Amino acid sequence: MRSNTNLWWLLAAFFGLMGVVYTAWNILAHPDLPLANQIEWVGTVALFFTAFMAILVAFYLGRVHKAQGGELPEDILTADIDDGDPELGEFSPWSWWPIVLAFSAALGMIGLAVGAWMFPIGLVVFVVAIVGWVFEYYRGYFAR
Predict the structure, then answer these.
(1) Which residue has the higher pLDDT, 21 or 85?
(2) What is the DSSP letter of 142?
(3) Quick check: helix, strand or coil at residue 31?
(4) Long-range pairs for 76-80 at CB < 8 Å and ≥24 separation?
C-alpha cells in the first residue's frame, strides 16, 4: 500500500509540474497576446485537475494505510504469493445470465441510439436477467 501511495504522489507531482511547464510554454509561445489569451486554458485546467485528482487518491490511500496498522503482503519482500490470495467469492462458471445481462445492456444502448421503443424492452430483459442471476441457485440442478 505504501508503494501505491508513493506512486500516486509521484503522479501528482508529475502532472503538477507538467501543468506549470505547459502553461509557461504557452505564455512564451504567444508573447504578442494579452496574458489571458496566452494561456491555453483547456490543457492547463486538465493537467492541474489531473494532479488534484492524483493528490486525492494519494491522500486517501495514505489514510487507509495508516488506519490498517499493518503492511499488505505486496509490501513485504519475504511474502509468498499465497499470502495475498484472499477468498474472492463464489462464481458460477456454467451461468448464462451474465450473457443475457450484457445483451440487455446492448439492447438498452441500441434503444437510446436508434429508437426509444427498444429501451423498455432492454429494461425488461435487464430485470429478467438480474432476477435469473440472483435466484439461479434456488432452481434446477444447483438448488440448495
Answers:
(1) 21
(2) G
(3) coil
(4) none
> What is the identity of the amino acid at 21?
V
Ordered by start, the domain boundaries in the chain are 2-84, 97-142
Task: State how far the Cα of 135 lies from the Cα of 40, in Å rounded to an integer.
Answer: 55
> How many whole angstroms separate alpha carbon 99 and alpha carbon 116?
23
Q: How far apart are CA 47 and CA 25, in angstroms?
A: 14
- Give the HSE-up count for residue 79: Cα atoms under 13 Å, Cβ half-sphere: 12
Q: Is the pLDDT of residue 143 over 80?
A: no
What is the CB neighbour count within 10 angstroms for residue 46? 13
For 42-67, the pLDDT digits (tens) are 999 999 999 999 999 999 999 988 88
Q: Report how far apart, in Å, the C-alpha atoms of 91 and of each of 19, 87, 129, 134 are.
A: 45, 11, 16, 12
Residue type at position 33: L
